[in-house]
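If your schedule permits, I should be very grateful for your opinion on a structural question. Kindly check, if you would, that the fold set down in the tokens agrees with what the sequence suggests. Thank you for your consideration; the sequence and its tokens are set out here:
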Amino acid sequence: MAAAAATLSAPDAEKLSQLKSAVSGLGQISESEKNGFINLVSRYLSGEAQYVEWSKIQTPTDEIVVPYDSLAPTPDPATTKSLLDKLVVLKLNGGLGTTMGCTGPKSVIEVRDGLTFLDLIVIQIENLNTRYGSSVPLLLMNSFNTHDDTSKIVEKYANSNIEIHTFNQSQYPRLVVDDFTPLPCKGQTGKDGWYPPGHGDVFASLMNSGKLDALLSQGKEYVFVANSDNLGAIVDLKILNHLMTNKNEYCMEVTPKTLADVKGGTLISYEGKVQLLEIAQVPDEHVNEFKSIEKFKIFNTNNLWVNLKAIKRLVEAEALKMEIIPNPKEVDGIKVLQLETAAGAAIKFFDNAIGINVPRSRFLPVKATSDLLLVQSDLYTLEDGFVIRNKARTNPSNPSIELGPEFKKVGNFLNRFKSIPSIIELISLKVSGDVWFGAGITLKGKVTIAAKPGVKLDIPDGAVLENKEISGPEDL
């Protein structure tokens, strides 16, 4: 910490010193959280270079970003059991469902057939453990926002054949921009005074919670980390086998970029190491090049496989200095700053790190009700907790769906569809205004439905809409 502080200007060193004494008086957080926070702020103030030298970027080879098709086939059941007994599944469960109009953890939104994200995750791991006689545990990394609710919810899985553990990621004070003091010191003692510092915090929190040492003592070797809302992030035995065989300490799953993913981080070779390049690090004059799907063909799915011993080694050495993502916010009219990090950026600190270019089916996030429409439709079926794409759809990419603000909240979305339409042959759907869908509707090709202001537009039961633009009942 002293080394980073040494590069600070006198005013910044003074700022940091005042911040330290303010933070030391915050009783709500642990010493390790206080140290982690001050460390992050110190690095931020020292202005560590965030940009990359564009001319040094190289496209990674197939040795660094391994094509999924080149992986060895799934091993025999006995080998599989021994692989699984060394695995832990960790889901990032700190997010709330607020953007979709829900209270509580996002992972308890019902996705399909009355089952939530968390139900599906538990069913998947139960099936693995039953099939192979293995003991893969599930870890949930909560934030202070989701901890209480999640603790209650996991009680319903008490009789499952999985050990479920929860732990909290760090809780850091929001920084008031004007005078660089922690917001809780300004009398903001509720949840609004604090923030979880991004999923890059997963490594330190795993260690600080005591979970890492407990897992190592049980002979666990790898953790598979993924967002709890990514329905495609299931345990893949071919990937696990490859990492064990080749002793890769870190693996990031990447997948081919489409025009919907142009802002996603990508893997590059940089100064002899594999590195994640995020849009925030790209010099302004190269942003369009970064967004092109010709030069940067892959993006990070945030499905990560990491060696547990390597995490311990690097956290203890304080070596995981991921790029800092400044996230400005406003709380009750006060401008505040959150400093965050992303887990994918840690790739450059691990030995023998690789990417694997996986099929798109491993990236199926539900970020909005438009995604919910996809996964609840006949485009997918549910088998053993896995969401499986319908082979009847010949187009490899999913339909593009844009729903207006009337559909943003899950409750409103569900009310406006008597049943989810058939979309096997849909290319795109745009809906705006006060639109209501009947039962048994089929959508094909390109469909645009735009109700005029003040007009309620009912799409009747059984309607088949193909390549249509509809703005009133007369167009049906």
Observations:
- DSSP finds 13 helices and 27 strands in the chain.
- The radius of gyration is 24 Å.
- The first helix runs from residue 2 to 6.
